[in-house]
Design a protein that fits this description.
- The structure is a single chain.
- The chain is mainly alpha-helical and about 70 residues long.
- The chain has four helices and no strands.
- The mean pLDDT is about 90.
Length: about 70
């Protein structure tokens, strides 16, 4: 399963970092650290996180659509 979705388990806030980590085969803590470090740079990182939160389906919805 290589789809982009927010998993039910392993979430910290909304599951965006855990979903990205699962999709790209990385550890969730690595993606969380990169997201946190990126907030030190100027740019719309927080807005991107919110957009991904809204756009990425939950695991349940993703699984229902996959079947």
């Amino acid at each position: 399963m290589n789809g982009l979705y927010r998993p039910r388990h392993g979430r910290m806030i909304a599951g965006v970092c855990a979903g990205l980590a699962r999709r790209f085969g990385m550890a969730p803590w690595t993606v969380r650290l990169l997201a946190l470090l990126s907030c030190l740079l100027p740019g719309p990182q927080f807005v991107v996180y919110l957009v991904l939160w809204v756009m990425m389906p939950n695991e349940d919805r993703y699984m229902a659509r996959a079947h």
